Amino acid sequence: MKSQIFWTQDKEMLSLYRKLLVIAASVYMAWWFAIQMLLPQSFNPFPSRLLVSALPLSFFTLSYLSRLIESRIRGLFILSVWLMTIHYFYLFYGNAGEINWIIGCYITVIAITLTLYSTAALLSYSIFVLILSLLLTYFIPSLRESVFLPGLITILGQANLGLRSQQKIIRDLNQSNEKVEKEKRVTQTLAENIRARDEFISVASHELKTPLTSLKLQAQITARGIQSKNPQVYSVERVDEFVTFVSRQIDRLTQLVEAMLDVSRISAGKLTLEFKKIDLVHLVKEIVALLSIQSGESGSKITVETPDQLWIHADSHRIEQVIENLVSNAIKYGNKKPIQVQVSQDQENAIVIVQDNGMGIEPDCFERIFERFERATSSKNISGLGLGLYICRQILDAHGGSVSVESEIGKGSKFTVRLKMS
Ligand code: ADP
User: Fold this and answer.
1) Atom of ligand 1 nearest to the CA of 376
2) Confidence (pTM)
3) Cβ-based neighbour number of residue 238 at 10 Å
4) Which tens digits make up the pLDDT trace of 163-199?
5) 150-161 pLDDT tens trace
6) How far apart are CA 38 and CA 180, in angstroms?
7) 262 CB under 6 A from ligand 1?
8) Closest residue CA from atom 17 of ligand 1
9) Which residue from 239, 331, 244 is spatially nearest to 290, judged by alpha carbons?
10) Could you tell me how many helices (H) and strands (E) the chain has, helices first?
11) Residue 378 CA, closest ligand 1 atom number
12) How far is the CA of 94 from the centre of ligand 1 (A)?
């Protein structure tokens, strides 16, 4: 595998190696050019010298600068090695008996064979030639040229080719990895949306069906009483009970439908706010008084701690909706234990804290419960749509405020609302 030729996959390191390679090649080319120019004319005529000097240089420059694909560069490389071989043969005939030219020819032919075989094979061959040439330079200096030129050309050329393909492989790999990751994220989001939608449909139909079924049942009982002319059905107490029951079920249905409408308004970006100056303390006290009737039934006692007044600039109806939702949740999930509502302020914000001592929420649900249709696992057997906190957060976001939760399973939850003062 070409991708395993180099020991690093770091893009910056690879480009540094390529730069070092260019410097090494340039120094070598200059050196080789000088040697060629210094050779006696009778030994190696000028055009042939020029060819042998220019070939590696032009090949290398081309392979470095061009945007040709690797196979084309390889083709050029093979061509240049062939030309070198011809040149060596030419020199061999002109200088018969010179052992270094014979070795030069031999090595060049091996280089061609390996070039055609594989990058990795040629790279190892190149390293072998380099070591050989260094050894020869040390022990038999007269032989050094015969191995030096083909050896170095192969090393430099191949290293460059290898680096290029390595960079390309890494680039392609990164691109395809990014693409796969992106597709995975899209599929995940789609699957999550579908799951949430399905769950919502089943919860919503259940939630809507429950008050409708009770209404139908009450209507049937009353109708039967009327048919049997039961005088009890017409008693003031019975009619009052019936009307209270019906209006409570209608309130419940209205709330559910309104929550759904709010969600679709938020999704369509049509949540409009009417800002005006409101007294947050007054608003909170009103909501608590109203909900106390409800909490009285369920057993929770609500205490309120507030300053005399706290003026903010906000949409009164929407803030009312937020506080009402948090207090209703505290009643619903509060295990009939006392609830505390607190209004205060810091330098920038008005703060409302709704704290219960109920079932609590698992820490890994802290963020999730503010998402659409999401409910904490601990409360699955208590009815709800999983929309209230989502709507709260959207309303507060639109006000430039925030809502957060702290909670411990079995000990209770504390919801903190922050709203800008001005
Ligand atoms: P709903 O109450 O209709 O399910 P919400 O969006 O108001 O929807 O709340 C989302 C979830 O957050 C609830 O289902 C419940 O699991 C959890 N939760 C909210 N308030 C409390 C609370 N005071 N105590 C414990 N859990 C809560």
Assistant:
1) 16
2) 0.57
3) 15
4) 666 667 777 778 888 999 999 999 998 998 888 778 7
5) 556 655 665 666
6) 59
7) no
8) 376
9) 331
10) 10, 7
11) 16
12) 96
